[in-house]
Amino acid sequence: MVRLYLPFFLALLILVIPKESVASDMLAVLREVAINVAVGKNANKFGVGEEGIKNHTLGLLRSKLPHLVIKKSVLPKVSINITLGGTNAGVEKIGYFGQIEVEVFRMVTIQKTGMVILANVWETGMSFVGPGDRATTHVRKILNELLTRFAADWNRGNPQKGTSVPL
To answer: Per residue in 97-144, pLDDT tens?
Structure first.
């Protein structure tokens, strides 16, 4: 029985492996981005605010990708969406749960028609849960991990001669 499934799993593994090279290709020649942050309405109850996340993201991107220019309003854009909820016992926070998604949107040309559209070219995300009132720290830690993935793919797609970029 295991022998029957082995070729299927090997084929699936082969299909998954090239994802990094495709991701880095989609980020090639990406020289500037804007940051767009959307935080769900319940996130503020757990100390996660839109402005704080935007500032944290800006700091992370500047430290991880010094060659990437961050602008206020430009396409392409890095979009961060955070949804957060939780359970309370009176005023005490018992736990929280959430989802963070990081996406990159840029203008692309559809080769067959020549039409130019805004498309999602890269994405990653993570669901999480945690106890008590540690949501802010947890969200920042996960965001750091997700933006590190973005930085790694960006660096593969945009190699810099004679420089090393900390990850």
So the answer is: 999 999 999 999 999 999 999 999 999 999 999 987 789 999 999 999
- Cα–Cα distance, 162 to 70 (Å, whole number): 22
Task: Give domain limits for the chain.
Answer: 30-156
Residue 147: CB partners within 8 Å, gap ≥ 6?
57, 60, 61, 64, 102
Cα–Cα distance measured from residue 32 to residue 57, given in angstroms and rounded to the nearest whole number: 15
Class of domain 30-156: alpha beta
DSSP, collapsed to helix, strand or coil, labels residue 118 as: strand
Q: What is the pTM of this model?
A: 0.79
Q: Report the run of H or E that residue 82 belongs to, with start and end.
A: strand 77-89
